[in-house]
Amino acid sequence: MSVRFKKSYKFALKSALFITVFSFLILMILLVLFFEVNLLMCFIFGLAVYVFSFFVIQYRVEHFVYRRIKKIYDNVSILDSSVLRSKAITTDMETLTNEVQKFATYKKIEIESLKVREEYRREFLGNISHELKTPLFTVQSYLSTLLDGAIDDKTVRKKYVERAEKGVERLIYIVKDLDMITKLETGDLHLNYSEFDIVKAVETVFELLEMRAEQKEISLIFDMNYVNPIMVYADEDRIVQLISNLVENSIKYGKVKGTTEVSIEDLVNNKIIVRVTDNGDGIKEKYVPRLFERFFRIDKSGARSVGGSGLGLSIVKHIVEAHEEHIYLESKYGYGSEFSFTLERAK
User: CB pairs under 8 A, 24+ apart, for 10-18?
Assistant: First the structure.
């Protein structure tokens, strides 16, 4: 891209004026002391000095200082900053300083952002590597044991094949969740909108997770008795999956003999909000901004024991955003959490 030049005459004008005034004063002193004063000659002399000084100074600025300023721009433009390269170069040092400072600030923010992304990328790769290698190594160990001779023992063979199958199921579960997130992010997953009763959708989730909740003696309840249906317009399968992920998450991290409560409330502009509240341990404030990231774990050591792909909340976020709705989280460490999301009422 060719560099545009913006000339500044301020420096040359002021400098020429100073030289002219100084020369004019010297001339006046000499005329008063040695010659008769001739005002016309003084004026012509002063004008000549001013014009001559202006052109000499401007020429020196453009061919000495200006070249160095241009070199600064050329060196900085290697970094391909559209912020700086799109502007005309000026010999005004204050303007140049401001532009370079803006450029430096812009680049600093960009570099910090890249560092954060790189950190997230490394953590994501580490997490996905861990999630995949655990079931892979499990399957490999069972199959290796069978190949080493344990296959001849019917009891061991059946037990190890069943365990290997569970490892493969976990791998499939993770891959399916990753595939869904990718499709949601790229817009390739088509949403099948329809009118359905959100109350029945929640009841379906309660039925699916009832046995798992009973293992921790957690009660799955509504905040009230919803007699009439509440019709919404969305993709029923995805919303059921969304609610299922939230309720399942509350069961995993909820307290024994605790509760998971679902409430449905009216909002403005033909919207409703669905709240999933538990009385578990809650989430520390420092973890909240990253809670919806893929594979993000609050407890790096113990969270793996609760199972799952580590993608549940990330899928929740993407399903909500695919519906162009909003998801919210309120949590107080030690007292529980509340996840809520909006949906459009059926007309």
Answer: 10/92, 11/57, 11/61, 11/91, 11/92, 12/54, 12/57, 12/58, 12/61, 13/54, 15/53, 15/57, 16/50, 16/51, 16/53, 16/54, 16/57, 17/50
